Amino acid sequence: MPITINLDKILEKNDMKSTELAGKIGITTANLSILKTGKAKAVRFSTLEAICEVLNCQPRDILKYSRN
Amino acid sequence: MKPPLFLKRVLDICLILILFTLLISILVPVFNAVSQEDLIPLSIDGVKIEIYTVPVVIVIFLSILKSCLFIFIIYVLRKLIKSFFKDRVFTPFQIKALNLTGQLIIIVTIVAPILNFISSLILKNKARMSLDMELSVNSFWFTFALGLFFILLSKVFEQAKNIKEENELTV
């Protein structure tokens, strides 16, 4: 998929673990894993908003578009 | 979702009754042929069978084949209903089973009049073709439509499966 998720880097930058983030934004670790591995077909605005709020970043920091 | 227990029971009864009838329709000709006497009278489409000639045996065989096809439809439907007990819907198995059921119903609907025509030709020595108007659920067009409906249902299930997958992969 041309959209890639950079969640790993931002998590590392914020010194946070996936389980911690999942708990803070209120989604399961399984769903967060789907997002991290790029298997997700859609991201809710509410989820994106929560991630940005917790990790103190912008949506552009998480999502990246690259032409194939 | 509540498991469709009543539907399964109805199909169970249907399967048991058909299997019982099929067993009798196999055993009676064999019994009569072995005993050389017509102890249990057998009739197909209202024609009493007295002599078991090769064409008559073919007719009996074709009738049994038609019943076997019908039993297979009920068996597939039963398996489909049982799959709903696991509280999982829109699975690839359910899509395939619905499609297969529809195809089999269409096959049986088309094959049955052909078999009736052949058996009428052999047993009554006359060919009859007519355009009947039936006002019951046994109508050719109704069962044909039922088969097509099952195929349509499988397509709907396939779409639902895709939507369900998308929903599950939405974070």
Task: Describe the fold and architecture.
The complex is a heterodimer of chains A (68) and B (171). With 68 residues, chain A is mainly alpha-helical. Chain A has one domain (3-58): Orthogonal Bundle (434 Repressor (Amino-terminal Domain)). Chain A is 56% helix and 9% strand. In chain A, strands 1-2 form a two-stranded antiparallel ribbon. In chain A, helix 2 crosses helix 3. Chain A is globular. By secondary structure, chain B is mainly alpha-helical. Chain B has one domain (5-168). Helix content of chain B is 71%, strand content 4%. Chain B contains four helices and two strands, in the order αββααα. Chain B has helices spanning 5-35, 54-83, 92-123, 140-168; strands spanning 42-44, 47-49. In chain B, strands 1-2 form a two-stranded antiparallel ribbon. In chain B, a hairpin with a 2-residue loop joins strand 1 (42-44) and strand 2 (47-49). In chain B, helix 1 (5-35) packs antiparallel against helix 2 and helix 3 (92-123) packs antiparallel against helix 4. The longest helix of chain B has 32 residues, at 92-123. The two termini of chain B are 24 Å apart. At the A-B interface, helix 3 of A face loops of B.
Question: Short summary of the structure?
Answer:
With 68 residues, chain A is mainly alpha-helical.
Question: How many discrete structural domains of chain A?
Answer: 1
CATH overall fold name of chain A: 434 Repressor (Amino-terminal Domain)
User: Can you tell me the overall shape of chain A?
Assistant: globular
Order of helices and strands of chain A: EHHHHHE
Structural class of chain A: mainly alpha
N- to C-terminal distance of chain B: 24 Å
- Strands across the major sheet of chain A, in which order? 1-2
Mean pLDDT of chain A, nearest integer?
90
Number of helix segments of chain A? 5
* Large-scale geometry of chain B: elongated
Question: Any idea what the radius of gyration of chain A is?
Answer: 11 Å
Q: What does the average pLDDT of chain B come to? A: 86
Please report the first level of CATH classification, the CATH class of chain A: Mainly Alpha
